[in-house]
Amino acid sequence: VRRQWTAEDVCGNSLNIAQDITVRDTTPPSFLVPADTTVNCGEENNFAITGLPTLITDNCSGPGDIESGIFSETIIAGSCENNYTIKRTWRVVDECGNDSLQVQHITVIDTIAPAFSQLANDRIIVCMQGINLEEEYESWVDFHGGAVASDFCTIDDDLEWRAIDVATGLPVGSMPSYSCPAPSDTLFAQTVDFIVNDGCGN
């Protein structure tokens, strides 16, 4: 800014002197960082839940000339795949490039169990020539009796399946032993529970 100063005495004699004023903006804006919070898996990028910077002010720039956003994120591993903490650094910068940084911690937890979209089907294997009973049984177990499940946080291929013999409470292994010929038309019968877990034990 060039400012002209004029000095004049009582007789009308005057003197003009120019003053150059250099204006610099070196003060960063200020803001209120979102509070630390805990959210369910899948909500960590929902800013309606985790929050955004507020009360953004600057000594020179107006609201429309101040930018805010995520500067960086660091993932801190937790007790399982879907339990972790995000160290989210927010940055607010004015039109002169002055910026201020603040950190928000977001704790992500997974407490929701997988859900079945298709339940297991009963399986009747007919003993007849050309049928391998062991292969038919093991195929039924390997494909979880036709059950299908999905999880909000864990991809389908990473879900953990178990097949439990209801009578013994033990994991299902090979096909139960049977005698042939059988005293009835049923060689063996078994009730199996198919259990699916996500990466955090739900």
Overall description:
The protein is 7% helix and 40% strand. The chain is mainly beta and 202 residues long. The strands form five sheets. Strands 4-8-7-6 form a four-stranded mixed beta sheet, with no helix packed on it. Strands 1-2 form a two-stranded antiparallel ribbon. Strands 3-5 form a two-stranded antiparallel ribbon. The radius of gyration is 35 Å and the shape is rod-shaped.
Distance between the termini: 67 Å
Rg, Cα atoms, Å: 35 Å
SSE topology string: EEEEHEEEEEHEEE
Please estimate the helix content.
under 10%
- Rounded mean pLDDT is 90
Largest sheet: 4 strands, mixed
Poorly predicted segments: none
How many helices? The count is 2
Strand content: 35-45%
Describe the strand arrangement of the main beta sheet, using strand numbers.
4-8-7-6
The coarse overall form would be rod-shaped
Brief sketch in words of this structure:
With 202 residues, the protein is mostly beta strands. The chain has helices spanning 47-50, 133-142; strands spanning 2-8, 14-20, 30-32, 37-40, 54-57, 67-80, 83-93, 99-109, 115-118, 148-150, 160-165, 192-197. The strands form five sheets. A four-stranded mixed β-sheet has the order 4-8-7-6, with no helix packed on it.
